[in-house]
Design brief:
By secondary structure, this protein is an alpha+beta fold. The protein has a single domain, classed as Tgt2/MlaC (Nuclear Transport Factor 2, Chain: A), CATH 3.10.450.710. The protein has eight helices and five strands. Helix 2 runs antiparallel to helix 7 and helix 7 packs across helix 8. The radius of gyration is 18 Å and the shape is globular.
């Protein structure tokens, strides 16, 4: 059965992440949970893991913002909003979603992230099913982690040196979450270069890549109940979160 938490072997590390730094959790859900408008694009191929090549160049051709600088700027924007917006600190889904749409969505390839999470079964889905999968997956990520934002006000992000070639089209930007009196938390991003600039499509917290962890769960659900079964399960999970929130007042 599909679970909102990751597999049991990852659970202890995820608990550490959630308790020690909400920024890591926020980046996990918000920087990947951009909203989707219109029909889902038909992705002919779903790529594998991204890598970084040897070299020392961090910039890219033309006027496209360098990927590490984009990640740093986006992270600073997210942190600043958490520090100044009490509604977001309290996990207000409407305010979190509004901020995602305005600030984060332009820098995220959520279509590719969802396609990679669904894996080979993505090709079996109709455009309408792909649209539903993206919408419900986004909602699940927001609901799962939006309540953990209040403790992210005292953290900062430190980029690790980027080693890439100007010709690279996919890279990993590595960073660390710094917390007072605590060990740094590993936080890495996979990005792909597009005509509009670099786009985030996966996030790694303490060695756990989001796409891989959800792909295993999604594959089990599709195998048992098909694409529509996966969509129904996501809808039910989101409804359960909303009902629990309503009971809490």
């Amino acid at each position: 059965m599909f679970r909102t938490q990751i597999s049991s072997r990852h659970a202890p590390r995820l608990t550490v992440v959630a308790r020690s730094s909400s920024l890591a959790v926020l980046t996990w859900c918000v920087c990947l949970a951009s909203s989707f408008v219109g029909s889902a694009p038909a992705l002919a191929q779903v790529g594998g893991t991204a890598g970084s090549a040897a070299g020392s160049a961090a910039g890219v051709a033309g006027s496209i913002e360098a990927p590490d600088l984009m990640v740093q700027r986006l992270s600073n924007d997210v942190l600043e909003r958490i520090r100044t917006d009490r509604d977001i600190q309290n996990g207000d889904l409407r305010r979190v979603a509004e901020f995602v749409d305005a600030t984060v969505m332009p820098k995220v390839d959520f279509a590719r992230m969802t396609a990679l999470a669904v894996g080979r079964n993505w090709r079996q889905a109709t455009p309408e099913q792909q649209k539903q999968l993206m919408a419900e997956f986004r909602a699940l990520l927001l609901r799962t982690y939006s309540g953990a934002l209040s403790s992210a006000r005292d953290v900062t992000l430190r980029l690790r040196p980027l080693r890439a070639d100007p010709a690279d089209t996919e890279i990993i930007v590595r960073s660390e979450i710094l917390r007072p009196r605590s060990e740094p938390i590993q936080l890495d991003y996979r990005l792909q270069r597009s005509a509009e600039g670099w786009k985030i499509y996966d996030v790694n917290v303490l060695g756990i890549w989001l796409v891989e962890s959800y792909r295993n769960q999604f594959a089990q659900e599709v195998s048992a109940n098909g694409i529509d079964g996966l969509i129904r399960t996501l809808v039910e999970k989101n409804r359960a979160y909303d009902q629990a929130a309503a009971r809490r007042g």
